[in-house]
Amino acid sequence: MAAFSSTHSACGILLLPLVVSSLICFQLASCGTIVEFLPGFDGPLPFVLETGYVGVGEGEDVQVFYYFVESENNPNEDPLMLWLTGGPGCSAFSGLALEIGPLIFKREEYNGGLPNLILRPHSWTKVSSIIFVDLPVSTGFTYARTDAAAQRSDWTLVHHAHEFLRKWLIDHPKFLQNELYIGGDSYSGIPIPVIVQEISQENEKGIQPWINLQGYILGNAITTRREKGYSIPFAHGMALISDELYESLRKNCKGEYLNVDPENVLCSRDIDSYSKATSRISFAHILERTCNSGDIKTSLRRSTIQRHHTKKFLNTNLKLPPLTCRTYANFQCGLWANDDNVRSALHIHKEFLLRVVPVVRV
């Protein structure tokens, strides 16, 4: 198993004047660090991984952590994407190691050591460079230096993401001309279209650096906050419930499946029948069985990086999911991210490690 000692700095400093032909410009003097070895991965990483912080907000009191993976194909020409995981409050590490990144946890029974990482053969980084960003504030390794800066809202997330991106591009000028996309999943369906709109509007105003924005990508996105109600038409379309039950639901509930009137006895009856019919189906992947993750759901979601010492965490007698369940990777993710050697390898700020980081429930 590889050590984590070999890293080198990838700092860049580019200070733009405050006024250039009446255009407003961002300033940044910061650096990221190239990570060549990661605990749990055998040998040097066969791709370029950079981690670092970018200060945003008033007085840069929010320190935004990111993982940047350079395209394994042609980083000079391939698209660049900024990726936000949902929640809100999901660490970008889940996107990197559980969804679209070049790493994945090896599925093996926990033996008391650090979970092992292997390569994902179908990573999106085969054809694009991706910045995985821990936002909103207090997500993953992103932290606030003041109580005021720790306040969260969708609008704050939008502004922080936009400011982060422009500052990051100043620090990485080789990517200024690359086509850029904003990507994310789940709750990111709420802020990402607004982030894209803000970037576009600021581009039109002449804000520098200009961003070569091409579009956005959303997966299983929340857009109306009524998505749970769509599960019934989906279940019918996938033949998980009968035509008769679906027609009865449509007739008796009149398309309203979320806030059922308790006096609507027929609709309540059909909802109960639907719940029973789908009770053993995993809606994360309908071809997989449901997995009883026990209390782990409230403590180690795919998105949460908690500030707990590993041994102390394991003494809480959590019921772990079976190895065959995809949620087992959530358990591995938490163990890995809470390891002191991992945090050293990722160059997490000492300031973060000394603060009490809230546990984000999603």
TrEMBL record:
Keyword Transcription attached: no
Gene3D superfamilies, sorted: alpha/beta hydrolase
GO molecular function, one term: acyltransferase activity, transferring groups other than amino-acyl groups
Pfam families: Peptidase_S10
Signal peptide interval: 1-31
InterPro entries: AB_hydrolase_fold, Peptidase_S10
Protein name: Serine carboxypeptidase-like 19
Species this protein is from: Clitoria ternatea
